[in-house]
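Researcher: We're teaching a course module on how sequence relates to structure. For the next exercise, students receive a sequence and then see the predicted structure as C-alpha cells, so they can try to spot secondary structure elements on their own. Here is the exercise chain.
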Amino acid sequence: CGGAMAEIFVVLRNLEPVIKHVEKSLNDAGLLVSREKADFDAEIAILLVGAPQKLLERQAQAERREKKLRDSFACHSPRRSEQQGWPVRRFTISQRHLFDGIEQPDFFTPAERASMVMAMLAAVVKDSTTFNAALAAANIEERVDQEFALLDALARLELMHDVSPLHFPAERARAWRLIIANLRSACTSPLRPLVPLDTLRAYWGEQVAYYFGWESFYIHALGVLALVGLATWARRPSGVSIDDDPAVPLYALAAVVWALCFVSLWRSRQAELAFRWGVGPGTSAAAAAATDLITPEASMAGEPTRPNFVGRSRVSEVTGEVELYIPTTEWAARLSVSYVLTAASLSLPVAVMIVSLNLQGYITEEARSVLGMRVHFETLASFALPGALLDPESNLALLPVVCHAVVITLLNGLFRRVARVLTEWENHRTQRHFDSSLVAKRFFFEAFDCYISLFYIAFELQDVPRLRSELASLFATDCARRVLLEAGLPFLTQTAEAWRERAKAKRHRDDANRKKKTDEHTRDTNTTDTNTDITKSKKSTKSTTAITTTAAAAAAAIGAA
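Model: And here is the predicted structure for the students to work with:
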C-alpha cells in the first residue's frame, strides 16, 4: 500500500467519482491508499488503507501510547511492568531514540497499527462541496451538508458496506502457535495461564485479551470451588442423600463467599492488566476519558458521533463547535417505548416455559393459575401421565428439557436482532451509549428466558428435586450446545476449508503435471517429425545427387560418341 503495510480495508459501492474522492481525501490526510478489484462482485470496490511510520508515530504520541524503553534508558521510565520485567514510557517523537525497536517495522503491534489507522480514518472530515460534487457525478440525489466525518457520511448514504482490519497470515499463525504451546504447557501445570494474554493483545487488541483473561481467571477460580464440592461429596456417608447431607448448606455458603472473593480478585486482576497495558484508570491512556466523571453531555463531547445518529444542529456549550443533538424528551420517549416493547417480548419465554413444564408434568391441576394467569393445560399435561409418551420414568422424559433449551437458544438469537433494531431506533449519539443500551436489553431478556422456569419451580412449586433435575438438564444441554457451536462447528468448518484448499492445490498440481506431460509429448513429437524430415531431406538430396551424376555421365558419354 504505497510502500507501507495496509492495515484496514474499506468496502465501497463501485462508483468511480465517489471512490476517487475518497482516495484523494485519504491521501490528503497523509494515509496511503491502494485499490483492489473485487472479482467476486463487480458492484463493490475495496480500498486498502495504511499509514507511513511517521504518521503512526504522530498518532501514537497523540494517543499517549506507552512503549518499551531500551535497557540502557531504563532510568527514564516513570514506572516498570513487573509482569514483563521491562520499563515502559509514554511515546514521544522527540525522544523516539529511547524506545526499543524503533528502527524495526514491527515496533507497533498489529493491533496498535490497526487501531491507529482506524482512528485516523475516522478523523478524516469530508469537504461538503467536493463530496456533494462527487455524489452528483455518481447520479446520487442525496446530499450531506452537515459536518460529518468522511466514513460517517459514506455510511449514512449506504455507500460503504464494511470497514475492518486486515489479517496478516504470518503473524496470525505465529500467534496461534504461541497459544497452542501455552495451552499444552497449561495442561501439565494447572497454575499457568491458559492463554498468553500479551500475544492476544499484540495481535487482536485489548478487548479480546481482556475477554480471554477473564475466561482464564474464571476457569482457575472454578477449580477452587470444584475442589470444595468434591470434598463435600467425598465425605458424605453412604446411604445419605444430597437432600439430607448437613454439609450441603455449608457448601452453598462457601459458594457465596467464593463469588464475593471472585469479583474482588478479578477487579484486582483487571486493574493489573489495565496498568500493564496502559489502558485503565491511572494511566496516561485514560487521561482523555476523564470527562466521563463530569456530566453526560461533557462525556459525549469527546466521543465520535455514531454514523446512524440523526439529530439537529446546535453550537456545543462545551466545545463551541457545531454538533448534532436530540432533545431529551424525544430521546426519553423513544427509550420508554423501546423498553415497553422489550418487556412485552417476555411473553414468549413465559409461554415456552408453560409449555415445557406442562409436558414434564411439573404443573398439576392444583396450580391452575399464577397471578391470575392460567398455567395448567390438560392436553399438554396428559403427555406426562404414567404410561404416556413423556412419562417421567420413560426414556423420553428429558425430551421437553432438551427442546426447551433449544427454543431458548433460538429465542435469544431472535431477540438479538430485535434488540439491535430497537436500539438503533432509540437513536443514541455515541457508540458507548448504544452498546450499554443493547447489552441491558439482551441481558434482561436472556436472563429472564433462561431462568424463569427455575424460579417458578423453586418459589411456586417449591420442589427441590425437580429444580435440581431441571437445572442440571438445562446446564448440560447448554454446555453441549456451546461446545458444538463454539468449538465443534468452527473446527469442522476449518477442517473442511483446509480439505478444500488441499484439494484445490492437488488439482493445480495435477493440471500442471498434465500440462508438463503434454508439453513434453508435443516437444518429443515435434523432435521426431523434425528428424524424419531431415532424414527424408537427406535421402532426397542423395537421390538428386545420384540422378545428377548419372545424367552428367550420360551426357559425357554422348559427347564422347
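Model: If you want an answer key for the exercise: Residues 80-85, 281-302 have pLDDT under 50 and may be disordered. The longest strand covers residues 6-13.
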